[in-house]
Design a protein that fits this description.
By secondary structure, the chain is mainly alpha-helical. Helices cover 79% and strands 0% of the residues.
């Protein structure tokens, strides 16, 4: 069960309360402020997510590059064996 004031509209209510002084002046100003706040929230969320996942992306790239190099090396060794050339160490 949710505590009082913990409903799904809480962020919208907090924004409205923080921007309450604009409500009486101009509806367009309030709409602009809400849109700006929403964009800021999305940008902060994406930045936090990217920061958390960046090490995993790096590991993934390293695994892909390592696998590609290994397969290329194996293909070159296979070609050398077929051609009868000595190994180059």
């Amino acid at each position: 069960m949710r505590a009082a004031g913990q409903g799904p509209h809480r962020p919208a209510l907090q924004t409205e309360a923080a921007l309450g002084n604009l409500a009486g002046r101009d509806a367009a100003a309030l709409a602009f402020a809400r849109e700006t706040h929403a964009r800021t929230a999305v940008a902060e969320c994406l930045a936090a997510t990217t920061t958390l996942w960046l090490p995993l992306y790096g590991v993934g790239v390293a695994v892909l590059v390592g696998t590609a190099v290994w397969f290329r090396d194996r293909a070159r060794a296979r070609d050398r064996d077929r051609a009868g050339l000595p190994d180059q160490a």
